[in-house]
């Protein structure tokens, strides 16, 4: 594709490379470093004049550093006369703040959904998916699980939880039936994983034969990995934890970039996973 550049920030170099490979492009040259006073420095190593620039950078890991790095990269490309600069943000920073503190974007924004990739993974990896129950670990995710359950034509359930304070659950009540079924927990974010691991225990005690958890944003901070290792989840393989598998979304992000660059609609991606 002509007149397009893709740059990677520090948060997701592997994902950025996969996106570039799918589009048949080379990643743009960029150097990120810190001055002795810990200020972030970004140097764009090639011309972006008149180019349609995409910067892949997330709000995970060192959130504040990554966010500042993204802003500096955007500014560097703008003052270097890029035609357009688009940030590709797999995990949007500060999205956990109270809803009343959120404003509205005054720039074009596309929110991409993981649901098509989740449905594809379930059908390809869980043999008993036709006898499963999709479960939300809290009432706030009810809309998410009902949509997935409807697409799979299976039942859904939710867990009502009462918190004593942030990241600490006091009590859980299961609303729905998982007895003699595979239970698939679906949530948007897993931070310390206390909620999702307690939910797995609740589902097993309610008669679930197996428990899977599908999470769009695995933050995994603090005791998360040790909790997952000892929780009632089906095992898979990944470094440091044999119960975690990564679902590749590079094809979705690459297709979104291609469609945006060519002025096409991205709504196709709301219900399909590109090949």
Summarize the structure.
The protein is of the alpha/beta class and 275 residues long. The chain has helices at residues 13-23, 63-79, 115-125, 142-152, 194-205, 224-229, 250-261, and strands at 4-8, 30-34, 40-44, 52-56, 84-88, 132-136, 155-165, 168-175, 182-190, 210-218. It has seven helices and ten strands.
- CA-based shape: globular
Question: Could you give a short account of the major beta sheet?
Answer: 5 strands, mixed
Order of helices and strands: EHEEEHEHEHEEEHEHH
Total strands: 10
Task: Give the strand line-up of the largest sheet.
Answer: 8-7-6-9-10
- CA-based gyration radius: 20 Å
Number of helices: 7
What fraction, in percent, of the residue positions are helical?
A: 25-40%
Residue ranges: pLDDT <50 for 5 or more in a row? none
**What do the pLDDT scores average to?**
89
Q: Ends: how far apart?
A: 18 Å
| Secondary-structure-derived class | alpha/beta
Strand content: 15-25%
What does this structure look like?
The chain is an alpha/beta fold. The chain contains seven helices and ten strands. The protein has a five-stranded mixed beta sheet. It has a three-stranded parallel beta sheet with strand order 1-4-5, sandwiched between helices. A two-stranded antiparallel ribbon has the order 2-3. It comes from Cyprinus carpio (Common carp). Its EC number is 2.7.6.1.
Task: Please supply descriptive tags for the structure shown above.
PRTase_dom, 29% helix, 275 residues, ATP binding, alpha/beta
Topology:
Elements: E1 4-8, H1 13-23, E2 30-34, E3 40-44, E4 52-56, H2 63-79, E5 84-88, H3 115-125, E6 132-136, H4 142-152, E7 155-165, E8 168-175, E9 182-190, H5 194-205, E10 210-218, H6 224-229, H7 250-261
Parallel strand pairs: 1-4, 4-5, 6-7, 6-9, 9-10
Antiparallel strand pairs: 2-3, 7-8
Helix pairs in contact: 1-7
């Amino acid at each position: 594709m002509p007149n397009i550049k893709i740059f990677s920030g520090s948060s997701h170099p592997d994902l950025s490379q996969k996106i570039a490979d799918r589009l048949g492009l080379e990643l743009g040259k960029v150097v990120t470093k810190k001055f002795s006073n810990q200020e972030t420095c970004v140097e764009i190593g090639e011309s972006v004049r008149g180019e349609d620039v995409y910067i892949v950078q997330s709000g995970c890991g060192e959130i504040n550093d990554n966010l500042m790095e993204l802003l500096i990269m955007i500014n560097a490309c703008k003052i270097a006369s890029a035609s357009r600069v688009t940030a590709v943000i797999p995990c949007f920073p500060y999205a956990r703040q109270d809803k009343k503190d959120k404003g509205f974007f005054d720039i074009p924004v596309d929110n991409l959904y993981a649901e098509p990739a989740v449905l594809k993974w379930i059908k390809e990896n869980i043999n008993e998916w036709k006898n499963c129950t999709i479960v939300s670990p809290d009432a706030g995710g009810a809309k998410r699980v009902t949509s997935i359950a409807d697409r799979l034509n299976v039942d859904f359930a939710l867990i009502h939880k009462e918190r004593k304070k942030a990241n600490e659950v006091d009590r859980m009540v299961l609303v729905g039936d998982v007895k003699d079924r595979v239970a698939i927990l679906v949530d948007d974010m897993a931070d310390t994983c206390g909620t999702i691991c307690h939910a797995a225990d609740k589902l097993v005690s309610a008669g679930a034969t197996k428990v899977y958890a599908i999470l769009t944003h695995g933050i995994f901070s603090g005791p998360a990995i040790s909790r997952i290792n000892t929780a009632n989840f089906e095992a898979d393989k990944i470094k440091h934890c044999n119960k975690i598998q990564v679902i590749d979304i590079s094809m979705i992000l690459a297709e979104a970039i291609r469609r945006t660059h060519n002025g096409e609609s991205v709504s196709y991606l709301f219900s399909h996973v590109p090949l």
